[in-house]
Amino acid sequence: MLGVAGAGPPRRRDYADELTRAFPAAQLVNAEGSVIDLPFQLPNGRPTALRVSLPSHFPQDHPVLCVVVPLQHPAVDTTGRVHLRAADQWGSGTTSRRLPADLVAVVREAMALLNASDPSAAAAAAAASAAAGGNAWQPGPGAGGGAGGAGGGGAGPTDPEGFLESLSTSQLEALLCDEEALRKAAAQWLQETPAARALEDVRRQNKQLATANLSLSRSIDEARGHVAIVRSGEYAAMRSLFEDLFNRQKAIITKMGPDALLARLRQEVDESDAASDELLERFQSGSISSLEAFVDAYVAAREAFHMVDLKRQAAEHHRMVPDDLMPVWSREAVAAALGHGR
């Protein structure tokens, strides 16, 4: 059993586990298990759920009970919070004796109060809870100013009208005459409202998150140092390799690129044309005596000239036409030009 002597004080998670065992339909709202919804039906058949919130300092702080769906009930205020004496007095000096089973008993009492078929009985229970101090406003010693104290340590309701009605005429006159005492009384009353309690819970959670984030600063600095080491080591080597490959690619394109290929083809065209012209000049000068030998040599020279010139034309056409309109044979012509025999 949780919370027995020698086993150590129960943790917040132990209370949540006890609730989920006692109420099989319970639903965990968050991963921490600090907010639990307990579905149930009202006497009129309307489905709703009782939300049990366990603050970060639970069980030192009291649990917060709210209804998920708005409900008209004497024990439920306009914010949906259920006011129950056992819940509001949870942390009043008896924390060490609060066991998970006690929280289950509080929740069962809240459900019984909400499921009361007699509204007058529910109202009486809510009034008894407020009169017992679970919902009371306790003004400090300075709340009464110089007229003997407005509250005098007495209890008062959480709504402003009820608070004012609980004061005597002399106390009201004292507050009206002492603005500072009125301000302190109003501030102390506001601290006991559901909104103020919820705000305090949010502040505590934000403080915990901020502390956790600050604890990560050292890890972030170490990660930044690792990134700097990687950048200074691997980055320089990879950049050097990239520049080397890029320069090699540039050199190959300079020698074997389309411009270089076209220049070579134009040069071969000029050389073939010049060779055939030279044969004609030699024949005309009488250097070649045989007509048949001249014709064979001249025809071969012109044939070579026209073959190279066709390749040149194909290469120039490939340079002028976009790639998406270029026929397949033009690429084969370029490949053939690259393999032209020396």
UniProtKB/TrEMBL annotation:
One of its GO terms (cellular component) is ESCRT I complex. GO terms for biological process: protein targeting to membrane; protein targeting to vacuole; ubiquitin-dependent protein catabolic process via the multivesicular body sorting pathway. Residues 133-164 are annotated as: Disordered. PROSITE patterns: VPS37_C (PS51314). Gene3D superfamilies: Helix hairpin bin. Keywords: Endosome, Protein transport, Transport. Residues 141-156 have a biased composition (Gly residues). It is found in: Endosome. Pfam families: Mod_r. The keyword Transport applies. InterPro entries: ESCRT_assembly_dom, Helix_hairpin_bin_sf, Mod_r, UBQ-conjugating_enzyme/RWD. Belongs to the VPS37 family. This is Uncharacterized protein. It comes from Chlamydomonas reinhardtii (Chlamydomonas smithii).
